[in-house]
Amino acid sequence: MKRIILIIALFTGSLTLLTAGEHEYVIGEKVTFESTVLNEERTIYVYLPQSYNFSEAAYPVLYLLDGRTHFLHASGITQFLSASGVIPEMIVVAVVNVNRNRDFTPTKLSQVAESGGAEKFTDFFANELFPFMERNYRVQSYDILMGHSLGGTFATYVLLNKPEMFDGYISVSPYLMYDSNLLVIETESNLKPKFSSETYYYMTIGNEPNYFEALAYFAKTVETKSPKGLNFEYLQMLDDSHGTTPHLSIYNGLLYIFSDWKLQPEVFNEGLAAIDKHYKFLSKKYSLDMQTPENTINWLGYTYLNKGDIKQAITVFRENVKRFPESANVYDSLGEAYENNDQFTDAQKNYQKAVELATSKADPNLKIYKKNLKRMQEKLTQE
What is the pLDDT of residue 23? Predict the structure, then answer.
């Protein structure tokens, strides 16, 4: 049995997943910069969606507290759900800890060393991290914050004090008992009666009885006040512990926030115009500059191709080439449609373009594109 060794390597420039005897797979970038607000060096890990290098699109951002712990599995969840068409493609930013007791806590307690830095940490996000991301990456102004335990405490602090900073919150086992239930008490007075835009707060707890009373009171207060524009859900995950709640909480939290994102079969069956209309609706609801994804259009094209409607498949694939001219995959798909229609010269032309783009971008599907091109070249030679 061939043994495969998986290594997670942290470099200044990238976070790389290596497999023995094969090419490296880069899962993200490691970025370090100086924070004036916090007077220290801070590190973030950044995951970019697959289409980032093939388009000029901008993306929503998922920010992770306790970033070193959650970066790998949260990036995987985001990639999987977006590829399944149930959430948008997203950039993931994992904020690596320096002092979580300091950064995540709202007040100073004598028994918690260096505590009480939540306000300054909020300023770090607003005045340094957000602008840094805007300068260096194509981001949309749609941000989600995920925090676990004390990170959930910080997420709740931001909801109550700077609710407009994030469009969505995933608060996992938040330690709301901090400072004699301070945030639970402040919810009654500080929770805004109206949110300027649709905001989502998704809260979970594992089988952690010490948390139940505080979180139940917090949930009751939120539900009683029912602020306009705030979508709230609280879920008890009694089969999970404090340590295992984050993974499913991120998964289900993203599905909750983007509950309208999934393209329904009846819309898909109506064709590209109806699909475009769906994504225009999503753009309006989530205040996103959203276009129909390349993968969705490709899926539609292959649906026509598999039904034998080659003419309509070619039309759809050509539209995908028009919208995503830097993607190797769209040319390969159009080449396949032409091949099925016995338009071998056109097929070869598009397979060649796919190989050229894939080579320039180190596309992992390059071998497939080369195989298709070689097959078409041989077929033309035999004619």
Answer: 54
* Distance separating alpha carbons of residues 253 and 271, to the nearest angstrom: 30
Assign residue 349 a region: left if phi > 0, alpha if psi is -120 to 50, beta otherwise? alpha
- Residue 134 identity: E
DSSP labels, 109-173:
BTTBTT---HHHHHHHIIIIIHHHHHHHS-EEEEEEEEEETHHHHHHHHHHHH-GGG-SEEEEES
Amino acid identity at 176? L
300 Cα distance to chain centroid: 23
The residue ranges of every structural domain in the chain are 6-257, 293-382
Length of the chain in terms of residues written: 383
Q: What is the mean pLDDT of the chain?
A: 92
Kind of pairing between the strands at 194-205 and 25-35 = unpaired
Tokens of 268: 């898909």
Query: Domain 6-257 belongs to what topology?
Result: Rossmann fold (3.40.50)
Report whether pLDDT(148) > 70. Answer: yes
Identify which of 115, 114, 238, 225 has the alpha carbon closest to the alpha carbon of residue 178: 115
CB 217 within 8 A of CB 257: no
C-alpha torsion sign, points 116, 117, 120, 126: negative
Among 47-61, 99-113, 229-243, the least confident range: 47-61
Judged against a pLDDT cut of 80, whether residue 2 lies above it is answered with no
- For the cut 70, the answer to whether the pLDDT of residue 9 exceeds it is no
pLDDT of residue 24: 64
Helix (H) or strand (E) holding 25: strand 25-35
Sign of CA dihedral 369, 374, 380, 382: negative
The one-letter amino acid at 100: R
Q: Is the pLDDT of residue 14 over 80?
A: no
Beta-ladder partners of 7: 18
Distance CA 11, CA 26 (A): 11
Retrieve residue 63's tokens: 């920010």
Q: How far apart are CA 176 and CA 178, in angstroms?
A: 5
Dihedral over Cα of 268, 271, 275, 278: its sign: negative
Residue 13 confidence (pLDDT) above 60: no
From the options 1.10.150.40, 1.25.40.10, 1.10.599.10, 3.40.50.10170, give the CATH code of 293-382: 1.25.40.10
